[in-house]
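Review box. Two proteins, two foldings.
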Amino acid sequence: VTVIREIVQLKKQLANICASRVGAGSGQDGNLDEFSVLQKAVDAAGGKDGLQKVTPRCNAQMALAIRHAIFVGWADRVARRITVSEMVREESGTTTMRRKRRYKTLLSSQVCSVRSPVSRNRPEWVTYTTLQEGRTGNINMECVTEVHPSWLTDFHLDKL
């Protein structure tokens, strides 16, 4: 029950942040592309009231709007799932990783793993909040959210 209360509080905080950014104007303090994407996400969710509405279960449209809003806030922290060809070392032909939950960050090209329910679906693109080094030296992504590939084109991250 405590976790559910925390989720509801975080949802309200995110709704307030998104709605205040959209309500503040036409993105004078930031990137116009970011503003327009954020405005679309907030409008799709029904504005501030729609984002704050407590529902017994989050429907698909609301979940998509929340994921989109999270991506807008963390657009510089995107990772792409590593393909099989990238897992094989060219010089020796051996596999560098045994797990299928490996991603490579776009900006730093850091190879990291995911310990999250999101990894069960193995999305091609994810956004994360932090990278944390584990006891064994592996780098893990924290607070992972699936990203739609079409959102990347809004920020021109598809060229990275």
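Next protein.
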Amino acid sequence: MTRKNSGFFAVSIFVILILNLYGQETRHFPANRIKGTVKAITLDSLLVSSARLAESHPDSALTLANAAYGMAINTNDNKSLAAAAKTIADAWYYKNEYVNAITYYNESADAALLAGNVNDSGSYYADRISDVAFCYMQLGIYEKAINLEGIALRINRRLDRLSETGSSLNNIGNNYFYLGQYDKAIQYLTKAHELDLQSGDSSDISVSLNNIGMVYSR
């Protein structure tokens, strides 16, 4: 085991132990309990640990991810900045703070374009734009969600990402359903189901079938 990996496990154990002290229902991880250790934690460990906490302990994730975010900015590390911004966005999403989530998903997408090769950054960018679109759907701003998901759809098609293309089609169909435009909803959901059958992913097939059934049973 490398020193880097050992550091990660030490950080993970540290975070878990502290959280256990405050109980499983605790959602607030006091910043003053971690400030003294942040300097000793590697950027990678902060990123991985915060990502693991984003759903179950979003406030804790925000503390760790913001520390990573600052480190990434100070070192001009766009790849790490993209990861940190995504975790911050995820944490805000799980706190139902969709406007804040949108801000950081967009920043994560932009940082990814500056960081990697065209295909990798393109895939990541499409995923984050899809995240933004989903937040707009949660806010009930369906037209905006459709436009953004359409961007993700075009990127996914260009990169031959079959499963992600199906997800984008599903999401667009769902937005049309919420708008009451049922014919368009069926059009996109049917296309999604056809792709899911090609991929053979039973979970995706189940989702697309369920969505189509939702439209017909309205």
